[in-house]
Structure formats: structure tokens, C-alpha cells
Amino acid sequence: MSGSAKSESGSSTSKVVKNKKDETLKISIVHSAIITLVSVLIVLFVSNPDNQLVQGIYFYIFQLRTKFNANSFAVPQNSIQFANSNTANLSFDELRDSLCPISNVLKPKILNPERSNIILHDEEFLKQSVQKLSGAIRIPTEVYDNWPDVQEAPERWSKFQIFHDYLHDTFPLLHSHLKVDKVNTYGLVFTWEGSDATKKPIMLNAHQDVVPVPKETWEKWSFEPFSGDFNGKYIYGRGASDNKDVLIGLMETIELLIEDGFKPERSIILAFGFDEEASGVHGSFNIGKFLEERYGKNSMYAIVDEGGKVFKFKDKRFAFAGTREKGYFDGTIELLTPGGHSSMPPDHTSIGIMSEFVKWIEDDPFQPILTPANPFLTGLQCFAKYSNSPLIPKSVINDIILAQFNELSNFKTRKFVSMEKKLKYLAQTSQSVDIISGGEKSNALPEYVSVLINHRIAIEQTVEDITNNINNKLSTLCQKYDLGLIHLGNTIIEPTVKGYFNFTYHNTLEVSPLTPAFDAKWDIFSGNIRHLYEDLIYPEFYHADSNTDSKFVITTPTIMSGNTDTRNYWNLTDHIYRFTPGEMDLTLNNIHSIDEHLEFTSHLQLIQFFYNYILSVDEDKSE
Predict the structure, then answer these.
(1) Residue 488 placed within a domain
(2) How far apart are the first and last CA of the chain?
(3) Is 191 exposed, middle or buried (0-12, 13-18, 19+ CB in 10 A)?
(4) DSSP secondary structure string, 520-579?
(5) Total structural domains in the chain?
(6) Are 559 and 376 a contacting pair, CB within 8 Å?
(7) In this predicted structure, what is the pLDDT of residue 70?
(8) Residue 370 confidence (pLDDT)
(9) Burial zone of 390 (CB within 10 Å; 0-12 exposed, 13-18 middle, 19+ buried)
(10) Which of 115, 166, 252, 484 has the least C-beta neighbours within 10 A?
(11) Widest CA span of the chain, in angstroms?
(12) Which residue, among 104, 100, 102, 111, has the nearest Cα to 531 in the 3D structure?
């Protein structure tokens, strides 16, 4: 090589080295700048999290990041128009004041001046009421999933005749004054005919059945699960709080009204299903059809069924009434593959592939969505507006208030909700892998494996959203493992010699319609709740001083994550209140579990509420 060539080669190498050094220096400078910027943002956010500029920068960066992240809070808020002509120019105080109005106290006409004192404070009345509910608990009315209809297996359902006989003997006055229809043998519909046929009936519901008590758990109970024992404060037993307390309380209420000489103008209907805990397929399903045939669609004034209760948070009481229910979806996914000896397995057996699917489902949950279509948002705003409870951090209260008006506030509210286990599934679709089965033998390849995934569908989503999510994941696995896919008998991907997925579902329910809140019927409903607690139960608190304007019971809409018998009554009215009158301790969570019990004062409050509410509804001239 000549000297000049060597010189050119050395010069070229020198340039490459210099360029690499320059490039490394640039990268180092960029990295340092990024680290510095991130550090500054972290310090700013930690030291001053409520600063709107800091929040905006954080929100913008988070949104950029989530473009590449499936697990995002950046879910489209389809039904929110964050600023419009009605709200764009309002101040924060004006926006807050527009939310969650408080109904006036409503006092119904008085039939018997002593009645409320008897219900709430009379020892003899308490004793008789305990006996009635205790007797109902002592009759086991357990039901299981997927039972055949009454006509196909009458022996399974015969326990309900024993329960009917008990009700007949315990409430003779009711049975002699009200018409009784038995729907599908054991569904009970009691009708107290009103004098004004132009008024729509009020419908009050409960269910006769209870969830089973596993024999293995009996020894863990403080009292036998069907004893109906009362210890002076609590009554114990399966059904004490779900739902024989409401059923017995309604029947007690009707007998008290009869005793007090009440003559209704508006008809009163009591509807008691007998398999609510098994989706109501034999009970409320047939009762709904029966009532629709008799009265027609949209024929009821309103329906009250089991649901939220009254809770105290520091010095405020909130009555939570469910005005909407989440949807329901059970999906079964089966995987069928060739068998063989375990000594010569494929790289991935059907169980291994299904495990990958299950992990994917759990690693990719649905994300929270919060719009005005979800009454949980309304309830959360009511709580933020009126409560001083530490359950909601002060740093997020204003964002909750603004969640339907401002995109950043909505984002922060969803983030807060997603971090609270008891709240997150009120704003998002849940998915729970509940049943899995597969494999027969230790030395045989599994030819069949299946999983059942339960979903409770968020308000802004549909059954189709759930099926699309599952189908998309299954399709990806089919491509990866050369498998087929059949969906409800329809071939999506042709089965192969390696096998196929079979995706089916039978138990589905779309999200319920939304009950209007803060209208005239709501005012009657919530006004009676205020009267019960402010005037009759705690007058010494609510009327102890002149500053009574700041002391009131707040009735707020909320969402039901589970479904009630009302799933079969949607055609009967737009106004369905899922509410169980009575106070409940937040620390108690024993429904469907060991030592189910009810503080009996709550049962007495239930009777008093329905007594007053029936009178108020009867006075309403609107329809």
C-alpha cells in the first residue's frame, strides 16, 4: 500500500472514531437531559401534586406512553362531552352546586300517631317481629344453580310449600285482605287492589330462596345456620340479611297498614321469587311475564327491590340506591387436541396452551370507564361533595367533582378508582376465571381442557365487547399454535389436525336500563328516607340545634355489581330502586358467608320506611 493510501485510510478511520465519539456524546447528553427532566418532574409532582401545570405535564406524558401500552387508562369516554355551552363558562363552585341535589323531607299522612313509636321502640313489637323472622330463617329454602323446572323435579322445590304454609299461618290478616297468585307453583304475587284503577301499582319485591350453606362450614357458625337465633342485638342465620328480612318486613308492614285502617287508592303488589340466587330463571322470570300480561309494559309506578343500604361516614349518613345493574356474561372456552402418550408430548399440551390464554386474560384486564351513564360516578360525586370522610383523599375530591366536565379530572378519578379494590369494579368490567378442568391421567396427553370465565360488564360496554375480546385472543393463539376456532357453532378458523378452540356462552345479560335520579319520584323515595332518619330515628342529632341546614341524609344513586330479580322486570317500569332500608356497619360483610346476621334495629327501620313510603306513594297524583 502506498503512503498516500495509508494516509487516506488513517484519515478515514480517524473520522469514524470522531463521529462515534460525537454520537456517543450526543446520546449521553440526551440521556442526561431526559434523566434530569424526569427527576425534576418527579420532584415537582411529589412536592406539589395539585398544581395544574404539573398535572397537565404528567397527564400528557402518560398519554404518550399509553399509545404503546394496552393496559391504559386512556379509555375513550364515549358519552362525555367535557365542555359544552351549558358548562364551559361555569365556575367550579357552580359546577359543584349543580351536582347531587338534596330532596326535601317528606312526611306522609298520619294514620296512627303511635305507629312509628311502636315500630321503632316497643319491646313487645320487637319480640313479635323477631319471632316472625326467626321462624322464616328456620325453614331452609336453599337453591342451587341449574336446577330443573318445578314440574320436572317437584321434590327439589317442595320445601317452598312448607315456607308458604308458614307465611299463611304467620300473616293471616294479609292473606285475608290481599289476592294471592302462585306463579310457576312457588312464585308469590300478593295484590292489594287500590280504589283508583288509573293509578299505576307500586311493586315491592323480595325473594324466598337463600344460598346454600356447605355442610363443611356448619361447625364454624356461632349458631346453627338455620336456627334464627337472636342474641338481643343480632339475629343469625342464612337469609337473615339476604333476603328474608325484606320479605318478612314487607308482610309485617302490610298487616300494620291493614290494622291502621289504610284503604289504598294505588294498588300494591308484593312479588316474591324463589330462585333469585340462581338467576331467577324459574321464579322472577315467570313473575315478570305474568305481570306484563296482566298489566302491560311500563305499567308500574316504581319497583323497590333489594340493594344498597344506609351507611354512616363520620357525621354524615348516605343511603345508596342502585339505579342500574352491571351486565353478566359466563363464557366457556374448550380446547380439543389429539391425545397420545406423555412420553412423547408436543412442545405445548392443551393445558399449557389454555394456561397461556388464562394468563393473558388476567394480564390484560378491562380498564375503568367513568361517564354519566354510570350512576357510580354520580354517587362518587355526591360522596365527594357532602362527605368529609378520609376514604377519599382531599387531593382527588375536586377531580371527582369535575370528572364529567374535564378530561384530566376524569383521568385522575379513574386512576384513583382503579387503585381502590372495593371501587374499581364499579367502573370496569371484571373477569374472573372460576372453573377449569382437563386431563384424565398422568401418562396420557390431555385431549380436552375447558375454562369458564365470569364477567360483570361495565355500564359503557356490551356482551359483544366481551366476546370480541375473547375471540381476538383466541384467534392469536390459533395462529401461533395452528389451531381452529369455533364460536357458537360457527367456524371462524377451520379446525386443524392439531385441534381447535370451541367458544360458547349461555348465561348473558346486557347492562340494565338507567333509573332516573333527582326527579319527582326520586324526591318521594329519598324524602321518605330523610324523614325516617332525621325525624323518627335520630331527631336529637338532626334537630339538636339551629344549624340544621347542614345536617341531612344524602340519598345517592349507585350501581349494583351483582344482579337482582329486577333483571326480569325491566319492561314494567323505568323506575327501579335497588335499596334495602336499614343501616349497616361497613365492617360487616357476612352475606352469603359464615355467621350471616342482621342487627335487628335495621329490620325495624325497614318496616318503618315501607310503611311511610307506601303512604307517600299513595298520595302521589302524578300517575
Answers:
(1) yes
(2) 107
(3) middle
(4) HHHHHHHHHHHIIIIIII-HHHHTSSS-GGG--PEEEEEEESS--GGGG-GGG-S-EEEE
(5) 2
(6) yes
(7) 35
(8) 95
(9) exposed
(10) 166
(11) 124
(12) 104
Inter-CA distances, 571 with 164, 186, 197, 282, 298, Å: 28, 22, 20, 18, 6
Range of the domain at 359: 325-509
Q: Are residues 336 and 482 in the same domain?
A: yes
- The set of residues, in sequence order, having a beta carbon less than 8 Å from that of 559 and lying 6+ positions away, is 322, 323, 324, 325, 326, 374, 375, 376, 379, 426, 459
pLDDT tens digit sequence for 494-537: 999 999 999 999 889 999 999 999 999 999 999 999 999 999 99
What residues contact 495, with CB distance under 8 A and at least 6 apart? Answer: 483, 484, 486
By the 8 A CB rule, do 234 and 600 touch? yes
pLDDT at 590: 77
Asked if residue 132 belongs to a domain, the reply is no
In whole angstroms, what is the distance from residue 264 CA to residue 579 CA?
A: 23
Phi, psi of 386 (to 5 degrees): -105, -20
Boundary (domain end) residue, out of 487, 509, 531 = 509
* Closest by Cα among 535, 105, 561, 572 to 299: 572
Task: Look up residue 417 and give its three cell numbers.
Answer: 378508582
**Whose CA is closest to 304, among 69, 525, 588, 11?**
525
Domain assignment of residue 443, yes or no: yes
Q: How far is 337 from 65, CA to CA, in rounded Å? A: 40
519 annotated as belonging to a binding site for a ligand: no
Known catalytic residue at 276? yes
> Does residue 97 have an active-site annotation?
no
Residue 434 annotated as part of some ligand binding site = no
Position 72 scores a pLDDT of 41
What letter would DSSP give residue 326? -
- Supply the pLDDT for residue 30: 59
Tell me: is residue 592 an annotated ligand-binding position. Answer: yes
What is the pTM assigned to this prediction? 0.86
Q: Is residue 437 part of a domain?
A: yes
Low-confidence ranges of the chain (pLDDT < 70): 1-88, 546-549, 586-589
Residue pair 178/194 in contact by the 8 Å Cβ criterion:
no
Q: What are phi and psi of 292, to 5 degrees?
A: -65, -35
**Residue 219, helix vs strand vs coil:** helix
Residue 242 known to bind ligand: yes
Q: Which three cell numbers stand for residue 304?
A: 323497590
From 275, 276, 523, 599, active-site residue: 276
